[in-house]
Amino acid sequence: MATVLSIRHGGGESDPTEVINTRYAWVLLVSLAGLFTFCALFKFWFGSQKGQQSKFMARIKKHLIYAPLIRSGQTEFRLSSASVIFTIPTRLQACIIFTAVVLNIVLLVTHIAWDSAEKSLFSLVRNRAGTLATANLIPLVLLAGRHNPISSIFGISFSAVNIFHRWLGRIVVLEAVVHAAMWLASKSSTSGWSYVAEEFRSSQFIFTGLIAVISFISLGIHSPSIFRNKFYETFLHSHILLVCLALGGLWHHLEELPARRYLFAAIGIWAIQRLARFLLVIWRNCALAKTTRGIVKEIPGEAFQISVTMARPWHVQPGQYIFIYIPSIGLWTSHPFTIAWYDQNESSPTKESSDINVSEKSKENTIHLADINVPQKSKETTIHLIVKRRTGFTAALHRKIQKTEVHIANVSPLLEGPYGGKQYCLDTYGTVILFAGGVGITHQLLYARHILNGLEEGVLFGRRRIQLVWAIRNFEHIEWVRSWLECLFRLDRAKNAFHVQIFITRDYNGANDTLSLGGNLRLFSGRPDVDSILRCNVDQQVGPMAVTSCGPGTMSDQVRKACIDYQFDCNIDYFEGNYCW
Ligand SMILES: Cc1cc2nc3c(=O)[nH]c(=O)nc-3n(C[C@H](O)[C@H](O)[C@H](O)COP(=O)(O)OP(=O)(O)OC[C@H]3O[C@@H](n4cnc5c(N)ncnc54)[C@H](O)[C@@H]3O)c2cc1C
């Protein structure tokens, strides 16, 4: 069999061409690892630059780190506010992608005897492209999915990791196409198309290769942003199916060929990630005689709050998100939501007691955390999510609570995570401006809470200025977080340090609405003028300044642009936590 393969495919382990290809595959893997390590070190170094900003640093931030690739300042190419056609990387991300592309091209064309006869030239390029495509599967799988270690180790956001995953995927598809095209060109020119057709029918080696290539091409075609956003579940399930087909086909295609070792590693990483996720879900949601339980409550503005009391306590960090499974609604599917708030309780209700209390309280259509607690001695974490209704899982959940008399329902959720939270830390900034659009508020609240709590407890020091700027469509959306804002305003250090501006973009004249949450809160009609808000904060800046944004792409683009414009006036770091990918 090995001899047959070496004739067909160019060789086994000892074949000199394979030795060279193996060497190039390793060069590729080591270079990509080096590239990511360099990025991690750069991120670490960049994070430590908090003092007076040099002109050089300002230029790097303005033209490389924060700058979108194109001058228009957008990081998304949109047809309308709802349909994103594709994500545009920042210049820094584009540099990393460009390096990976160039690296692959160089490794594909180097050490190929370009003056060889046509047939052997086709074979050389074919084998090199095939080997590189297979080797690229390792970083591709490492960067795939929610549980990827690169994201956790390097603190890179879900959306940024996804950008790299997609570009590596495109490289793999192109290399697979080159591999197949070289074989087709060689066989059709020497033996004719009828021989090619016969090979597809009779040779398992060729047939499985064909399945793999078609699957890779399909993966490339079905992945654009517009399809992912419109039909997420269809995308996800077909993606997994095609990945299985591609890897399965390739596994048979590479039987007894050296490149199979890369595939083995890629499948191993994928299997370990899946297993780790499964174990994490079990561990998080099942403890001795306890499971995770949740309550879904309708809140104004086509939204609902999910409060989940975890089977085990956990130390929640700002910026963390979880994936929630509610099998009775979404079967095996899971959806990401950011932890908007959490409570660490000393007591632990049993399932029955919490159910009873909910139904009793339901009559008043209000529910508070205290209502679902029965005093017992153990620590437990309740996390709160604010979920805006969309058209799939969230709509089904919304329908379920609509059917209940008081629009509150008990659910049995499973939470996977937490993920994120390591992307950035705002502890060392004197001035922090948190921009949120709509449900993006869930990303920002815990950052404010973390800093204010740190100041109260003496863990953080010095003068601080935290400004929360929140744009919402309707006045009623304030209800989503009203009680939590009140909690923050009650903190001593919030009096001077915490300022909130809420911009109501629709149907608001400000005349009839009164809002007294006991703190520095101001309501405005219309959209926030990002530039003047930033100017005002630059004038009153305390220490280094961090600006973060979580909301619609258009809003984040404005905030990003304003931060870029002020780079030479002061030291501003910009971070994004959007819910797109
Ligand atoms: C890191 C992160 C944090 C988020 N935090 C919040 C939050 O705090 N509150 C909130 O209301 N929304 C949040 N979202 C968005 C939320 O996950 C989606 O709105 C929700 O999954 C939509 O479910 P659906 O089936 O009703 O969506 P659909 O109506 O089918 O689709 C609406 C949009 O949600 C996207 N989407 C659907 N399912 C998923 C999924 N499983 N994973 C990723 N995206 C998906 C689709 O691509 C589409 O763009 C967050 C998203 C991410 C990536």
TrEMBL record:
Reaction(s) catalysed by this chain's protein: 2 a Fe(II)-siderophore + NADP(+) + H(+) = 2 a Fe(III)-siderophore + NADPH
EC numbers for this chain: 1.16.1.9
InterPro entries: FAD-bd_8 (IPR013112), FAD-bd_FR_type (IPR017927), Fe3_Rdtase_TM_dom (IPR013130), Fe_red_NAD-bd_6 (IPR013121), Ferric/Cupric_Reductase (IPR051410), FNR_nucleotide-bd (IPR039261), Riboflavin_synthase-like_b-brl (IPR017938)
Residue ranges of domain FAD-binding FR-type in the record: 275-425
Membrane topology classification: Multi-pass membrane protein
Top-level enzyme category: oxidoreductase
Superkingdom of source: Eukaryota
TM segment ranges: 24-46, 94-114, 129-146, 167-185, 205-222, 234-251
Family annotation (CDD domains): NOX_Duox_like_FAD_NADP (cd06186)
GO molecular function: ferric-chelate reductase (NADPH) activity
Record carries keyword Zinc: no
Keyword Cell membrane on entry: yes
Entry's Gene Ontology cellular component terms: plasma membrane
Major localization listed first in the record, in broad terms: membrane
Compartments, as annotated in UniProt: Cell membrane
Gene Ontology biological process terms in this record: copper ion import; intracellular iron ion homeostasis; iron ion transport
Keywords, comma-separated and alphabetical: Cell membrane, Electron transport, Ion transport, Membrane, Oxidoreductase, Transmembrane, Transmembrane helix, Transport
Homology family: Belongs to the ferric reductase (FRE) family.
Name of the molecule in the record: ferric-chelate reductase (NADPH)
Species this chain originates from: Talaromyces rugulosus
